[in-house]
Each structure stands twice: as structure tokens, then as C-alpha cells.
Amino acid sequence: NPANLIVTRLYVPPVCIRPSVVSEIKAGTTEDDITMKQSEILLINDVIAKHTSTGGKVELIQEDWDFLQLHVALYFNSEVSGVPLTMIPKKQTRGIVQRLKGKQGRFRGNLSGKRVDFSARTVISPDPNLLIHQVGVPERVAKILTYPERVHPRNIEKMRQLVQNGTDRHPGANYVQQKGSAFKKYLAYGNRDKIAHDLRCGDIVERHLVDGDIVLFNRQPSLHKLSIMCHQAKVQQQRTFRFNECACTPYNADFDGDEMNLHLPQTEEARAEAWILMGNKSNLVTPKNGELLIAATQDFITGGYVLTQKDEFLTKERAMQLATCLIAGPDANMRVELPPPAILKPRVMWTGKQIFSLIMKPHWESHTLINIETKGKNYTTNQDLCCKDSYVVIRNSEIMCGVMDKNTMGSGTKKCIFYVLLRDYGEEEATRAMWRLSKMTSYMIMNRGFSFGVGDVTPSRILLGEKQKLLDNGYSKCSDYISKMKTGTLQCQPGCTLEETLESVMLRELSSIRELAAKACFNELHRTNSALIMAQSGSKGSNINISQMIACVGQQAINGKRVPNGYEDRSLPHFEKFSKIPAARGFVQNSFFSGLTPTEFFFHTMAGREGLVDTAVKTAETGYLQRRLVKCLEDLVVHYDGTVRNAIGEVVEFTYGGDGLDPVFMEVQSKPVDLERQFMHIRALRKHREEEALEGDEIMPTATEILSLDKFIHSRQDFKRDSLEFLNTVRKHVCKIESNYSMRGPGGEICRTTKSHLEEFLEIVEKKYCRAVTEPGTAVGALAAQSIGEPGTQMTLKTFHFAGVASMNITQGVPRIVEIINASKSISTPIITAELENNTNMEFARKVKGRIEKTTLGEISSYIEEVYKPSDCFLLIKLDIERIRVLGLEIDAETIRFALRNSKLRLKPNNIEVLGSSLVIVRPDSNKNSSLNTELQRLSTVIPNIVVGGLSNISRAVIAISDAVQPPTYQLCVEGSGLRDVMATYGVRGNHTKSNNIWEVFNTLGIEAARTTIMTEIASVMSGHGMSVDSRHVMLLASQMTSRGEVLGITRHGLAKMRESVFNLASFEKTADHLFDASYYGQVDSIDGVSERIILGMPAGIGTGVFKILHKNDNYVLDEQNEPIFYLK
């Protein structure tokens, strides 16, 4: 009933919501906005009552009435629009709506997230001596953070001691709360001995934080779940938090003044859940793509690289010293055995590789044996004798060949020794080895020394000569291009003007100078050069950095182009107008060592500024993007039936990612086992000498026989399929060796495979497949949102060139991701990629391009003239036959007549006349009201724009050439929209043609095609920026966007269609609107989702909250079962 919407009473909120502030300076109190507004409303109300009772003027009552109406509106929402100018209040107040909405409002500022107790924040420092899972906590912090420990018979003496120590001595206690009492005793005062003596079982002692306590450690911005992990405290005397540098990557922390937060969980349940689910040992791997994130960094990689060089030999003293580093912490009682020395005469020496192997296998009886074969960072082309010694082979934890570098020790890879340890022997072994590495390499590098000085970046004479040659060569090529452009002999690139072509080739030429200079640096620098060691080991820097320091800073790019001309047609006043020489357009030929000239410095600053602005804008953009993603995907959870459902039980995916496997456990691209490595590992581990080796043709029948055993009956089908496919390749390999070598001799050892090998291999692979199944309760939605949002911060906001076509820009990076997840109807660069029926014939491609690209009459005419005769006047159109032939257009005079007849000019058929093959006459219509002359003038302006060939809504199509295969293949990149028309064009393979416009694909091919387009587009943007995100995350996002049968954007409008919950919508955006609507329609919120549960302080239905515990009750009797309603015959 509309009458219910008229406000007749106002609730007066309690005083705690509108506190009065007592000021000492001036007398009286300062009241809250709400109190002031309510007193004004009361005052006006009294005035109206007084006027009506005493019979005041109608105009006055009317005016007060309006005033009351306005004040009540401002009480609810102080930013309400449409307030008359005469009534605008002098001071802006905060209404009820203002208290609820926005980042600082109740919903986002106090309900969805709160400030907490038992937290600490200070600066961080590195400490390689701490274990991977430890964090050093200052004693000062440890005395303030307390944990409530309950007294029981086993710890009562310890608790008494803590109480006696009091608040100032560590370890001590701050408070004691007696059983059954709500009162706490503060231990800074009072008789502590008496309190300690009176302690009873059941009392609670709030003791100081001590070694081994479970704490949560976090760095903002928290972009993914690994930004907050669980560590064990180690109380130290310093004033900063300290942790091992291996754990930097997940936090994205460096030690240039970063601060981090520490939280101390207050219950045993919270501690257990934190240690098991959030412990950093359990989170060595990122859910984004299953790569190792906690691994060796910087110094450790440099140390490992230097130690495993071919010429690194150690005397007994040094070898013992390094081996002794391993005996500490949890390994204090570990046995370390040096292997036999590599060199016996003239003195006993060990190689660095032998000592490094102790990290993986400290003594002969160690059971952690790893087997890897992988390419290092500087791998050339030859496995057998790589000249950089960068093909790494590790057999049973001994390095056979290869130097260790970022690829084999660092994060972001799956070929790393720690990743293999984690997958084969568990997290404990991996973190222990990581700690051993950090101890050994930091000790080694401290003793050996590793400094970086001016001498390391001083170029030699030879290098300077090389650089000058490169510059002269590059400059002369650029001069050639400029002179060619002036004379008009420069060949245009497809779809580019002369100017664009020149810029493109010059940018390419000048950018290559820096690349070549970097190569020259690498060839000239001595192998002991610090910068070179850091770049080659992958610990810091790259060849570009070295080149810029020593040889040449190179071309400065702004917006992906050379420095543009400013005012007055030049980049700076120091150059001539319209100058195109490299120096005038941002090429810096000096190095940082030699110093930059003023103009070079200016251009370098321009490029640097662009980077800063880009970063600042990007941070805000990606932050909002990630917030929207999380809000829309937060309640998607894997259930016990394997489906992914939202909070109200709607199915979003029937199987997570199509196979139900967890990205964390993928050892190779979307497979849970690296089959090749696993097979090699088993053969190296177990020789089975007593067994007879299988011949090539026996392998497959034996494997099939093993798989038919009872223990494999219920195994996954994909495990059986993948294993048999792999074993078939092993069979081929064995057969090939059998045919080349005698299997009785040494040849048999190359590929010796027994039945036991096969059985063990299949058992391990099956275990890994079972382990990789996603656990029910996994919050896959939130993980997908983080995995897509977090790499966004490392992307650029730039527009890049389309592969193979210089002139066709395509939106990439953050703007493209935003376009996709907003499901924008109009995108900035719509492109249709059309596959051709005959994709190796350039002539055919040109013809199809002519059928698609819009061709107007003006473009293919030599002239269009008005002809006046005494008795007649007409337009004469002369076609440019040569141009039509070159462009491969299927157009002649008859086509023109047909196009003119069907155009909107409403010309009569007998008004158009064709003369020969290239002349067309068009006569104006004489029956019109206007004169013939006017009509002829109108026709002459309109006719050149008539479309005579191609599709009218496609302005441009470019032939893209792919040289990856021979002969080269061609495809069409079509700018604009019109997917249906392009697919229907003769010569185009319609079922292989795709568009990057999601809405167009949806309207043409339906919802499944739109879902696939979302997936491929996001994946292509990510891979274009070198980011790897598991396809399962992208698939889930696409499924959520299309699960309602239409494409919904991840925006406030899309969220409103995906969710019914008022709390969820109100805690996102438009808080007041959603609350008003909900109260108007009397909406009910079922409190199922994550946001709603957090707001009300209930456990959310994800993770450990997805199930309930059923209590056993012996007295409970099952109801008698009803008879079934339907009987099945």
C-alpha cells in the first residue's frame, strides 16, 4: 500500500551511534550530525503544529511543510539531488546513507572487514639462517601479543613460572583469568607469587608469544591467498620482523623499507586450521598455475651458480667448511658424508657440483633421491656437450653435468630441484633442502666475496669499436630509409601509409642495435664479471640491463612508438623541424657508464615518466577489477558430487575444469604427472638386476595385464589412457634400440625395463592422479578471481601490434581484460580472423579480401565528371581497370550498374547506362521537383561513396602472413563487425572463422561459442604478456559469465542478475539503492553466500565450513520408512 511509504515516525538511534564530543576549549558539547538533524526536524514539526493550532497562513504552513519534507530527506541521504537553491544547507552533514555506503561506510569499513586485536606491524629484514617456515619476532612485540592458554596438570608449573615473570620479563604473562570469572588480573601490579600459587586447572593465563607459536604473516596489497601465510614465531632481540628470503616471492616483498603485519590466532582450532591450511610449507606452490613460488632467490641462485661451475674445485678444508654449514637447526644431529674426491693428485680436491649435491643427499643412506634432466637458462643447442654447460642431468641426487641456475633452483618453474622434491618426497624434504641451500650458498658467497663496482661496467676498447660499427651501420640504414621515403621508393607495408611504414622499419632497426650491443657485451665481458654472472644465473638483471650500463641505452619508446614531435613540428628545440634522424626521435647512443647528453637525458626521462604514470593508473584499475572478480566468484565451491555450485546450489560447472583436477598438482601442462621424468626416476632408483628385461613388443601387453589387476579396476580412465599412450612411446624407443644394438650387451642397459618397473610406475602415477582430484570445499571461485586478478598488476595498459601485421593495432593488457570481463557490447578494436579455403595462395587471399573489404565507387574510378549537352546532362563514370585488376576485385561495369540500382539513390533502371567495359552513364531523374542541375550536383557528391563491392560495415581487411611454416600461410584480419557476413563469404572457411567480440559471437553462434571466446581471449592476453594462468580458472570465469544463458559482465549490473542476496549486493556498490529496493519489495535474504555470512559473523559455506559434524546419539530412533508411492514392475 503506497500509504505505508509515508514516514510518520522516526526512530531515534542510541547514543553510541551519535556520540557527543565534549570540548575543553569552548563551553558545552559538539553534537553529532544525526542529533542536530533530528532536533531540526522536531523544531520544524513543532512549528507546523503551532501554526495549524493557532491558524497560521496557508503559505507559511506550506513552506514549513516543504522544509520538513526536505529535512527528513536530508536526514536519510544528505546528498539527495533536486534540493531548491534557497534551501541548500550551509554545512554538508552525514546522513544515514552516507554512514552505510563507500569504502569507509558500515558495510565495507566495519562489517566485511574490521580492525583487529593481537596484530603487530613493523619493518622487515632478511635472515637466511631462519628456517623457511619461521619468522623472527622482536621481543618487544612478543611481550605485547598474548595467547590465552588454559591451565591443566601438565603445564601448571610452566604457567606459574610465566605468571611470576610478569609483564616485563620474556617469556612472561600479562593477565590471568580465573575459572568461572569474567574478571582479568593484570600482572604488572599486585603480588605475582600469590597469583601464581593460586593458579588452578581451568584458569586462563594470557602468556607472551613464545618460540614455535603459530602466527599469520601478511603483506599488503594482498592480491592472492599466498599474501597471508602461517609461520612459526622465533623471538629475537632485534626491532624488525625477519624471515628467510626464499619466502619473498609469494609476498612480493623486498627489504627497501617494506612493512608487514603479524597476527596471533587466539584459539586452538584457529591455530590448527592456520598451520594445516595456511602454513607456508603447505603453500610452496601457487594455485595460479601450479608452479613453485617459494624457492631460492638472488644471492642463493648466484651462490649455487658459482659453486657448480666446471672449474670450481675445493680443497678439503673448504669442502668440510661448506658441509658443516648443513649441520644446524633441525639438522643439528644429521650425518654429513663427503663423497670420494674428484681429484687425488697433486692434492685431494672436490668439485663444486659434488658439494652442492650434499644439499639434496647429505649422506649415502639418504632416501631422498631425485632424477631430473632439464635445460638450464643459457642452454645452447647441444645436449651432449653444451658449451655453456647448461644442460642439467641429476641422477639419484648427484649432479652429473650442468650448472645450477634460476631454472633449476628458482621460482616460477616446474623443473626445479625443490619442485621435484616436493612432488616425490613431500613438503618437509623440499623446505629442508631449501634451507640447506640458503645456509651453504650464503656462507660460500660471504667468504668468496661477490661485489659489483665501476670496473664491472667499464667497456673495453674492442667493445667500444664494436658498438661504433653497430651505430654506423644502423644510422646508415636509417638514412637510406629516410631518403627512400623522400623519393617515394619506400615499399609500403600492407595497410600502412608511407609515414607509418618509415616509423615501423626505423623503430625495428634502432631497437635491434641494443639487442646486438647486448650480444657484443656478452661476448666481450670476462666470465667472472659480476653483472654477467647475475644475468646468466637469472638472479637479477638481464642482457638488456648490461647493454644499457656498458654499451648503449637504446631507443626510448613512448606509447610503443618513437618520441613524437611536440609543438613546432620537432621533438625538442635542439633539432631541425620535421627531422626524422634517430637522435631527434629518442635514440640514446650513450651508455649509463659514459653518461647521457642533455637531449638524451630528456628523452630517457620521458620514457621513465610514462612508466610511472602507467603503473599508478594500472594499480587502481586492476585493484577494482580484482574486487569485482572476487565479488562475483566468491561463493563458487566444489561440492562432494564433484560439481561447482554457488551459494544457493545452482550448478556452474558439472566438473571443475572439465576433469575435476586441481591446478596445484599439475606437474606438466594440465597433467598431474610428468610421465617421462617419473619413468626415468623409477628406472634410476630400482635396477631389478635379477629380473629379465622386457623386449619392446612385450611392454604394451605387460602394461595392459597390470592395469587389469584388481587394484586398478576403479582407477580413472584418463590415468589409464595417458599411461598407455606414454608406454607406447617407450615401446617404440626400445624397439628402435633393439634394431640398432645388441640387447645382450651394453645396448640393453640403455633402455632396460622390467615388469616390476612397469608395475611401480603405474602405481605411482595412479596415486598422483588420485591426489590431484580437487578436494570438496575448495573455494575455486575465489582462487580463479585471484589467479586472474593478480597477474593483471604486472601487465601494461598498452596497445600492441597484431601478430604479423604492423598496421593493425589490437587492444591488449589490462584494457582488454577489462573489456572481456565487462562483456562490453562495443569494443575498441573488433577484429574477425578469417581462415581461407586455399590458405597458401596469395592471389586467392587478395580475391577474398576484395569480397570482404568495402569498396566505394570513388576508390576504383579514374574520374567522375558532370557532362552538360544542349539537350542532355549526365554523370560520366570512368572505371580504373588497372587498379581493379591489381586489387583482385571482382567488379566490372555491370556490377556498378547493379550496385547503383540497389542503392538508396532511387535511380530508375533506364537512367543508368553502360558503355563498353569501363564507362557508366548516370542521368538524374527529371520528374523531381528540383531542377536537373541541382539533382546532378547532388548525385556527383553522393555517388563516389556508394559501396560497389565487399561488405558495407567492414572498412578494412588485411592479409596476415605466417612464416612459421613453409610454404607461408595467409589469413585475413578483418577490422569491424559482421561475423555472419564474413563467414558466409565465398572462399572463407566459416567454421574456422572467429571474432574477438563476445556479443557478436553470442548473437551469431550462441552461448557456448561465447564462452569459448571468453576463454580464448583471456588466455591470449595472458600468454601475450608472458603470464601463465591455468585454463581451469579462465574456464570457471567464462562459465560463471554465461551460466544464465546470456553473457553477463562482472559489473554491478551483472552481479545483480547473478545474485539475489541483499547483503551481497549492498556490500558491493549502490548500497542505499539495494537496501531501499529490498525494504520496498519485502525481500528475504537466506544468508547463504560468503559476504552475507562474514557480515553476520557466521562460518561461510566454503573450505572447512562446507560440512557439519553429525553427533552420535544412541537414543535416536529412525522413523519408520513410508511405503514407496510408485512401484516399478
Automatic annotation (TrEMBL):
Its main location: nucleus. One of its GO terms (cellular component) is DNA-directed RNA polymerase complex. Keywords: DNA-directed RNA polymerase, Magnesium, Metal-binding, Nucleotidyltransferase, Nucleus, Transcription, Transferase, Zinc. GO terms for molecular function: DNA binding; DNA-directed RNA polymerase activity; metal ion binding. InterPro entries: RNA_pol_asu (IPR000722), RNA_pol_N (IPR006592), RNA_pol_Rpb1_1 (IPR007080), RNA_pol_Rpb1_3 (IPR007066), RNA_pol_Rpb1_3_sf (IPR042102), RNA_pol_Rpb1_4 (IPR007083), RNA_pol_Rpb1_5 (IPR007081), RNAP_III_Rpc1_C (IPR035698). It comes from the Eukaryota. It is an enzyme of class 2 (transferase). It catalyses: RNA(n) + a ribonucleoside 5'-triphosphate = RNA(n+1) + diphosphate. Gene3D superfamilies: 1.10.132.30, 1.10.150.390, 2.40.40.20, 6.10.250.2940, 6.20.50.80, RNA polymerase ii, RNA polymerase Rpb1, domain 3. It is found in: Nucleus. GO terms for biological process: DNA-templated transcription. DNA-dependent RNA polymerase catalyzes the transcription of DNA into RNA using the four ribonucleoside triphosphates as substrates. Largest and catalytic core component of RNA polymerase III which synthesizes small RNAs, such as 5S rRNA and tRNAs. Forms the polymerase active center together with the second largest subunit. A single-stranded DNA template strand of the promoter is positioned within the central active site cleft of Pol III. Belongs to the RNA polymerase beta' chain family. Component of the RNA polymerase III (Pol III) complex consisting of 17 subunits. This is DNA-directed RNA polymerase subunit. The lineage of its organism: Eukaryota, Metazoa, Ecdysozoa, Arthropoda, Hexapoda.
